Amino acid sequence: VQLQAYGGGLVQPGGSLRLSCTSSGSTISSYSMGWFRQAPGKQRDLVAAISSGAGTNYADSVKGRFTISRDNAKNTVYLQMNSLKPEDTAVYYCNTVWFRASNYYTQVRGDHWGQGTQVTVSS
Q1: Fewest CB within 10 A of the end CB: N or C in the chain?
Q2: With 90 as the cut, is the pLDDT of residue 83 above it?
Q3: pLDDT confidence of residue 24
C-alpha cells in the first residue's frame, strides 16, 4: 500500500496541527493504520493507531493531546495534534499496522515508508 502523509509545518508550542494520510492506489478502509514519528537521531516510534473498526490506542507521551481518526469515504486517516510541545518535533509517517489494544504491542505491517511530513514545534 502506497501512502502519503501531509499537513505538517511549523507551529508554536501549545498550537495545533492536523495531519492526513491517504492512498491514491489502494483502499485503506480495511486496514488498521498507524501514525509514527522519528526525531533526528532517534528510532521511529508508533504514536497512535486505529483499527479497521475504529478502535484506537496511543503512546503515553501523546495521550490526551493527539486524536487519531479515519474517514473511509475519503480514504483518509487523520492525526489531530493539540497542545503541541517542542518534543513533538519529528518527521511523521503513516503506515498499516497489526493492531492490538495496547500501543506497545501494535506492530508495523507495511514494508514501504513514504517520505513523511515534517512537524516542527518551536517559538
Answers
A1: C
A2: yes
A3: 83
Task: Compute the CA torsion angle 70, 113, 66, 27 (nearest 10 deg).
Answer: 0
Q: Is 99 helix (H, G, I), strand (E, B) or coil?
A: coil
Alpha carbon distance, N-terminus to C-terminus of the chain: 36
One-letter identity of residue 71: D
Q: What are the angstrom distances between the C-alpha of 33 and each of 6, 37, 101? A: 15, 14, 13
C-alpha–C-alpha distance, residues 5 and 114, integer Å? 7
Pairwise CA distance, residues 123 & 80, whole Å: 20
Q: Cβ(57)–Cβ(103) under 8 Å?
A: yes
Q: If you search the block for the grid coordinates 488498521, which residue do you land on?
A: 32
Query: What average pLDDT does the segment 111-123 reach?
Result: 93
Q: Is 95 exposed, middle or buried (0-12, 13-18, 19+ CB in 10 A)?
A: buried
Sign for the pseudo-dihedral over CA of 30, 31, 34, 40: negative
Question: Three cell numbers at 27?
Answer: 483502499
Number of Cβ atoms within 10 Å of the Cβ of 60: 8
In the structure grid, which three cell numbers stand for residue 98, read together?
A: 497489526
